[in-house]
């Protein structure tokens, strides 16, 4: 039985993180169900000058991530009758990357305003892995409280905070993006080679 990772892309800045996660999942041979919010389409357009359209999602996804989609199922964000809206739909878990403050609030409060929020709530109630990747900074008290609510509900809150070890001060933006994507995939147990791992320093 096909059991995909659900990847939700919300409207926060940081869509390159989502692209890196999607590329790595495809490369690892993992099935993926993709949900792109309406706000995320605007952010993708702003950050990449590329459109993401329901009717042309395969072509647009290939242009966006630079890799042909393999075993990816796309669900429009407005389709609340879609498979991932039900707990009986088989899934391994969900990654919300990037996660806007609105998406975090909606998931934490169980608002189910769109399929992204509903699918995340479903995976939380089914006790599946859910990783939420907030990027916005600074944060307000209400945002922090919503993140605490997500943690209390069983989610992993993984801020998009890249590390510089193994990269150095002259790190490229893609290396920093891949570091965060690698940490996300570590959290859900998917193998990758996106980051240089800390091994400790030899004493002298």
- Topology, number of strands: 6
Spatial strand arrangement across the major sheet: 3-2-1-4-5-6
CATH superfamily: Flavin prenyltransferase-like
Number of helices: 7
Radius of gyration: 16 Å
CATH architecture: 3-Layer(aba) Sandwich
How much strand? 5-15%
Look at the structure and give the CATH class: Alpha Beta
Summarize it:
The chain is of the alpha/beta class and 204 residues long.
List the helices and strands and how they pair.
Layout: E1 5-9, H1 15-27, E2 32-36, H2 38-48, H3 57-65, E3 72-74, E4 93-99, H4 101-109, H5 115-125, E5 130-134, H6 141-152, E6 156-157, H7 173-188
Parallel strand pairs: 1-2, 1-4, 2-3, 4-5, 5-6
Can you put this structure into words, describing what you see?
This protein is an alpha/beta fold and 204 residues long. Helices cover 40% and strands 13% of the residues. It has seven helices and six strands. It has a six-stranded parallel β-sheet with strand order 3-2-1-4-5-6, sandwiched between helices.
Features:
204 residues, alpha/beta, Rossmann fold, 6-stranded parallel sheet
């Amino acid at each position: 039985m096909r059991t995909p990772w659900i990847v939700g892309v919300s409207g926060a800045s940081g869509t390159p993180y989502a692209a890196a996660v999607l590329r790595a999942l495809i490369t690892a041979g993992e099935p993926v169900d993709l949900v792109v919010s309406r706000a995320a389409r605007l952010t993708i357009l702003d950050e990449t000058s590329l459109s993401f359209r329901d009717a042309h999602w395969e072509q647009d996804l290939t242009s966006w991530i630079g890799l042909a989609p393999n075993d990816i199922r796309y669900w429009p964000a407005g389709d609340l009758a879609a498979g991932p809206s039900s707990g009986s739909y088989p899934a391994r878990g969900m990654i919300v990357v990037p996660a806007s403050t609105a998406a975090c609030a909606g998931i934490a409060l169980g608002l189910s305003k769109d399929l992204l929020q509903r699918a995340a709530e479903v995976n939380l109630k089914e006790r599946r892995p859910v990783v939420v990747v907030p990027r916005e900074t600074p944060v307000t008290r209400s945002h922090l409280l919503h993140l605490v609510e997500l943690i209390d509900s069983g989610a992993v809150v993984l801020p998009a905070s890249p590390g510089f070890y193994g990269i150095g001060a002259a790190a490229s933006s893609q290396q920093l993006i891949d570091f965060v994507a690698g940490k996300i995939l570590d959290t859900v147990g998917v193998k990758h080679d996106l980051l240089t791992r800390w091994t400790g320093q030899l004493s002298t």
